[in-house]
Specification:
The protein is mainly alpha-helical. It is about 85% helix and about 0% strand. The chain is built from 4 helices and no strands. Helix 1 runs antiparallel to helix 2. The longest helix has about 35 residues. It starts with a helix and ends with a helix.
Length: about 80
């Protein structure tokens, strides 16, 4: 149960990080299209799909990998080790 909660937390963090990264990348893309290349600005839907998806996968995998040792223990063992 604790393992799933931690993994879901990393998935949500990855989703938020991916959305922020996609928004920043889209903003830079639009500014380049308008100010540098002087072409019509377009929205890159691939960026909005792949950014959050990649963020979810990468952060969930790295977070689960970093906390693997803690996730293998049950909750009672973790609480006892704190005291």
């Amino acid at each position: 149960m604790l393992r799933n909660a931690v993994i879901y937390e990393f998935v949500i963090l990855g989703l938020l990080a991916g959305l922020i990264a996609a928004a920043a990348a889209q903003t830079v893309l639009v500014l380049l299209q308008l100010l540098v290349f002087e072409i019509k600005a377009t929205i890159s839907w691939d960026l909005w799909l792949l950014g959050p998806l990649a963020g979810m996968v990468l952060v969930a995998l790295m977070g689960a990998g970093a906390t693997l040792r803690l996730l293998k223990q049950n909750s009672a063992q973790l609480v006892r080790s704190l005291s």
